[in-house]
Amino acid sequence: MTSLYAKELEVAQLAVQRAARLTKRVFHEKAKGTVSKDDKSPVTIGDFGAQALIIAALQHHFPADEIVAEEEAAQLRTDAPLREQIWDLVSTTQLDDVAAEGFLGGRIPGADAMLDLIDRGNSPGGARGRIWAIDPIDGTKGFLRGGQYAVCLALMVDGDVKVGVLGCPNLPVDDAAPLTADIGANQTDEGRGVLFSAVVGQGATSRPLGTGALAEGKKISMKPITEMSSATFCESVESGHSNQSDSAQIAQKLNITNPSVRMDSQAKYGSIARGAGDIYLRLPTSKTYQEKIWDHAAGDLIVREAGGQVTDTTGSRLDFSRGRTLAANKGVVAAPAAVHGQVLKVVQEVLGL
Ligand SMILES: Nc1ncnc2c1ncn2[C@@H]1O[C@H](COP(=O)(O)O)[C@@H](OP(=O)(O)O)[C@H]1O
Ligand SMILES: [Mg+2]
Ligand SMILES: [Mg+2]
Ligand SMILES: [Mg+2]
């Protein structure tokens, strides 16, 4: 008997692997083609290209599904040189396993089709039906500085995350490797690249992020915390994304002395899910910011399937049914299930909740 969501999982893993291959090409071969979005955050040709390749695979297998993706093609429709740069990348990035590439549906017919695929990610989201969430490059700032980033894909059904996949090209392959923030300017790709996956009720796995067919996966689980004082926090590099002074106070109250490890992207969720770190805190820096569903959907499931609990700072589960944002939530507290309550209590004391 094939397990539930087996096909969705395979498509998602291979699509993420192919998109990650594109992002690595951008990092190594190309000027990154960075442009500023309306909110002043960066987006690169890698973000657009990876989104196009992922949506092409989803469109091939699940044409009726809705898609909520971070990027849109508007700017590319008026900027021909930028569009051509992206098309050049997209049209020449394949998996190097012929069967796997064929399974994803092969090439996109042309640059216009590519733009339309990118814009297929414009679903408003919501509580009904099958909706994919895509963050083609999460941690674009990390990507640009040679740090951590993640290619993120999740399937939600009626507002619940059922399948989650994270491709983390710059994390060590070895699940037992010590937690590192940046990979450093002169390090190579040797020994790096992990693909994390989870299906609801089926546990979480990691495998080397490859360039063709999928490698063998192995089960991952969070590390049990026996002494809170020896736990390690993961948090954003960007102080504008998570309040680092609040997290320092929380660490102090929990008698944690290890410095928190700062890394960009959902690599934080993957890292705690495999026991390389222990606790991921994302503490609001503003009253109005709403977290985006594509920044959390895959990581939320991977951590919960690895034995973790994920809530916001009020203790509610992340609610992916509200549209493109987590409109009902504030911040994120992710920790091994056994200690989540203890961590949340201190988070709430420090935040005055
Ligand atoms: N003020 C803010 N508060 C929280 N998250 C923010 C933010 N502004 C941007 N972000 C999100 O933070 C993500 C990166 O998270 P992290 O800090 O964990 O690396 C960004 O994803 P992208 O890089 O995909 O745009 C972006 O969506
Ligand atoms: Mg972005
Ligand atoms: Mg993101
Ligand atoms: Mg992004």
TrEMBL record:
This is 3'(2'),5'-bisphosphate nucleotidase. PANTHER family: 3'(2'),5'-BISPHOSPHATE NUCLEOTIDASE, PHOSPHATASE. The keyword Acetylation does not apply. Mg(2+) binds at residues 70, 135, 137-138, 295. It comes from the Eukaryota. CDD domains: PAP_phosphatase. It is an enzyme of class 3 (hydrolase). InterPro entries: DPNP, Inositol_monoP_metal-BS, Inositol_monoP_superfamily, Inositol_monophosphatase-like, Inositol_monophosphatase_CS. Keywords: Hydrolase, Magnesium, Metal-binding. Converts adenosine 3'-phosphate 5'-phosphosulfate (PAPS) to adenosine 5'-phosphosulfate (APS) and 3'(2')-phosphoadenosine 5'-phosphate (PAP) to AMP. It comes from Cercophora newfieldiana. It catalyses: 3'-phosphoadenylyl sulfate + H2O = adenosine 5'-phosphosulfate + phosphate; adenosine 2',5'-bisphosphate + H2O = AMP + phosphate; adenosine 3',5'-bisphosphate + H2O = AMP + phosphate. Belongs to the inositol monophosphatase superfamily. Its cofactor is Mg(2+). One of its GO terms (molecular function) is metal ion binding. GO terms for biological process: inositol phosphate metabolic process; phosphatidylinositol phosphate biosynthetic process; sulfate assimilation; tRNA decay. Its EC number is 3.1.3.7.
